[in-house]
Write a structure and sequence with these properties.
This protein is of the alpha/beta class. The protein is 48% helix and 13% strand. The chain is built from six helices and four strands, in the order αβαβαβαβαα. Helix 4 links the parallel strand 3 and strand 4. It is globular. It starts with 11 loop residues before the first helix and ends with a helix.
C-alpha cells in the first residue's frame, strides 16, 4: 500500500511518472478527454484546516476521472467519537483512499500507520506534497512547450530530483 505522506515517499521514478501522468491528463482534458481511471472509486476528504483550492481540486479531479470525493465534516466523529484507528478502519471499508488536510504531520503518520487505505497528505504544518508536485509541474511546464515536452519534463525533473 502506497501512502503520500511527503515527497520523500516517492522514488525518483515514481516522481517522474506522476509528472508524466499529469502532463498526459492535462493535455487530454484540454481536448475534452476525461478517462474514467477512477470509475467506482471513492476518496474520503478529511480536513481539519479549511480549504478552497485543495478541496475543490480533489473533488474536481475525482469527478473528472470518474470517481467520487466525499467531504467529511465534524459530524463524522473525527477525533471525537472515534479513535484514529477506528476512523481510518471504517473509512477503509467504504473508500479507496483518504486525503487528509491537518495541522500535525503526526496525524498523517498515525493514519498511515494503520495501513488500511492509502493516505494522501493534503497539507500539514510540515509538508504539502501535492502542492509541491503541482508547483514543480508548473515550473517545468513553463520552461517551454514543444513536441519533446514530455522528455523535457523528464530531463528537468531529473535535475530537480538531484537537487
Amino acid at each position: 500500500m502506497k501512502h503520500l505522506r511527503s515527497l520523500l515517499d516517492l522514488t525518483s521514478d515514481e516522481f517522474h511518472e506522476v509528472l508524466a501522468w499529469s502532463l498526459r491528463l492535462k493535455q487530454g482534458l484540454a481536448k475534452g478527454h476525461r478517462p474514467d481511471l477512477l470509475k467506482n472509486r471513492t476518496c474520503a476528504l478529511v480536513f481539519e484546516k479549511a480549504s478552497l483550492r485543495t478541496r475543490v481540486s480533489f473533488e474536481t479531479a475525482m469527478a473528472q476521472l470518474g470517481g467520487v470525493g466525499l467531504y467529511l465534516t465534524g459530524d463524522a466523529g473525527w477525533r471525537e467519537r472515534e479513535s484514529i484507528s477506528d476512523f481510518v478502519r471504517v473509512l477503509g471499508e467504504y473508500n479507496d483512499f483518504l486525503v487528509c488536510r491537518t495541522f500535525s504531520q503526526s496525524t498523517i503518520e498515525e493514519l498511515a500507520k494503520h495501513n488500511v487505505i492509502p493516505v494522501i497528505n493534503g497539507l500539514t504544518d510540515e509538508s504539502h506534497p501535492c502542492q509541491a508536485i503541482a508547483d514543480i509541474f508548473t515550473i517545468l511546464e513553463d520552461c517551454g512547450r514543444s513536441e519533446e515536452h514530455t522528455s523535457e519534463l523528464q530531463s528537468h525533473s531529473d535535475l530537480v530530483c538531484r537537487l
